[in-house]
Amino acid sequence: MLTFLDFEKPVAQLQARIAELRAANEGEQIDMGDELAKLEAKSADQLKEIYATLSPWQKTQVARHPQRPHFRDYVEHAFTDFMPLGGDRYFGEDAAILGGFATLRGRQVMLIGHEKGHDTQTRLKHNFGMGKPEGYRKAIRLMDLAGRFGLPVVTLVDTSGAFPGIEAEERGQAEAIARAIEACLDLPVPMVATIVGEGGSGGAVALASAERVLMFEHAVYSVISPEGCASILWRTAEKAADAAEAMKVTAQDLKELGVIDRIVPEPVGGAHRDPKLAIRYLADTIDDELGALVGKDVATLQKKRADRYLAIGG
Questions:
Q1: Of the four listed, 29, 124, 125, 244, which is most buried by Cβ atoms within 10 Å?
Q2: Same-domain check for residues 76 and 177
Q3: What is the pLDDT of residues 187-219, one digit of tens each?
């Protein structure tokens, strides 16, 4: 069953009516095909109209949709020969950040990304995609491997932020994130990062400091969550919609500001409505970007990365 968001209520009502008519039509002699076709067309048009004018806060809700594809879905439908690599060789394993060798359209890559999980059990296992220091140190280890083997790095970012717990602070969360950003900037191989859902704070930047940063059409990317920003500025999370508007969290705003390089389209109604199609769109785009980067020398790649980030806000 598809989960409908609050602003999708008109579509949900139409879909409920369509389901009722289909159930009533089963076994009956009356042909309701024309009526069903009209309702389905109306539902599709309404969905298209709603998603053409989403506010930043509504896009935030879409980016967080529980049925939106996550890291393991991309591995299953876009990459082959995935060989997971675990552990940071300092403390332990972190299930919030996954990675390993993979193949995309015949090209070997190092794939790293956040995994949020799809149900209560897997969300707890993956800590809702909030990485701990050992997760970021694992990412650094994998980037180092990619550099040594000459493999491009592909990252899939989807996190509300790095884990803020006491144990994470005790193990050096800030230092681990800073080292991960440094590892991205110093990579001797091409790197393409994609914000596939939420891109939250340093937990996202640690895996997104690439020379090419892509972003799904309805993803969001910001220094803090809208609720967190509202709590600081207005002392209430109820102002989250205003915060999302002010922070320019959408792909369209960030493309205009030069924070991201390319927007990846989603199926009408968001990636959660047709995950396989959304994943195909992303795989095509990443393959295209890698094709343009592979073969460039180390100095060019590193300068391109440095220039890109120094130009932001200029």
A1: 244
A2: yes
A3: 999 999 999 999 998 999 999 999 999 999 999
Contact 186, 299 (CB under 8 A): no
Among 53, 72, 89, identify where a domain stops.
Answer: 53
Residue 106 has pLDDT above 90, yes or no: yes
Asked if 274 contacts 240 with a C-beta cutoff of 8 angstroms, the reply is no
Tokens read off for 190:
């091409």
Pairing type for strands 191-200 and 212-216 reads parallel
Average pLDDT across the chain, whole number: 93
Distance CA 159, CA 73 (A): 16
Nearest to 143 by CA among 95, 104, 176, 106: 176
- Residue 49 domain-assigned (yes or no): yes
User: What tokens were used for 234?
Assistant: 């207005």
SS3 3: coil
The answer to whether 95 and 126 have CB atoms below 8 angstroms apart is yes
Note whether 25 and 131 are same-domain residues: no
Q: Select the more confidently predicted residue: 20 or 103.
A: 103
- My answer on whether 92 and 22 are in the same domain is no
Q: What integer is the mean pLDDT of 87-91?
A: 94
Q: Which tokens sit at 13?
A: 């009502």
Q: How far apart are CA 254 and CA 244, in angstroms?
A: 13
Query: Model confidence over 214-243: pLDDT tens digits?
Result: 999 999 999 999 999 999 999 998 999 999
Hey, how many other C-beta atoms are within 10 angstroms of the C-beta on 16?
A: 11
Q: Is residue 1 part of a domain?
A: no
In this predicted structure, the answer to whether residue 29 has a pLDDT above a threshold of 60 is no
Query: 5 is written with which tokens?
Result: 């968001």
Q: What is the largest CA-CA distance in the chain?
A: 73
Number of domains in the chain: 2
Domain span at 110: 60-311
Torsion of CA 154, 156, 162, 163, to 10 degrees: -110
Q: What is the pTM of this model?
A: 0.92
